[in-house]
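FAQ
Q: What does a multi-component entry look like?
A: The components come first, one per line:
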Amino acid sequence: SSELTQDPAVSVALGQTVRITCQGDSLRRYYASWYQQKPGQAPVLVIYGKNNRPSGIPDRFSGSSSGNTASLTITGAQAEDEADYYCNSRDSSGNHYVFGTGTKVTVL
Amino acid sequence: QVQLVESGGGVVQPGWSLRLSCAASTFTFSSYAMQWVRQAPGKGLEWMAAISYDGSNEYYADSVKGRFTISRDNFKNTLYLQMNSLRAEDTAVYYCARELYYYDSSGHPHYYFDYWGQGTLVTVSS
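Then the predicted structure of the entire assembly, as tokens:
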């Protein structure tokens, strides 16, 4: 399968922890990367590889992977973390990419 | 700071063609594979096409294969997307993105997009 499935929406209380999951067969072979997108803006890379954060991404963002599931965890969610989050990986063929369906995170 | 600036979007009729450009600056463009990703209004991200650092390999999503062509000019530091036979469902914001990769401890590569442009809107409507 070349699909990556995410829950459409999750909510989290300010300062609490939320985990977003991404499922797909290609994740058995490739780590997911995660992108944050706020309304009207381009996506921003927040996690790549096993659990790597680009410069400037707060350490409350972390990633993990097991089997066909990748997870993005926000520990101590802030109001500015409210956004859409997408996972991505190479597909099973290794030459194409596939994005997850996206998860809208609401911080209450 | 890495900069990617898309241009060339606009309003076109179904069946028309359009060429998008992505001007890259402040990095060695010729060393990186590049991608096009689009996002239809209110929808998620959709990977469109990829091109290797030297232009020798191209890959396309099934939805655009045969209609879209990705190319690059490493002397002009510019990525292109030639879009032919446009359809209403091609209406979207088109982003270019730079690809990076690294090898894990077992030597397996893992890929990601570290920089994105701000996007250019293509509207296909009669």
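Q: Is there any commentary attached?
A: Sometimes. For this entry: Chain B has a mean pLDDT of 96.
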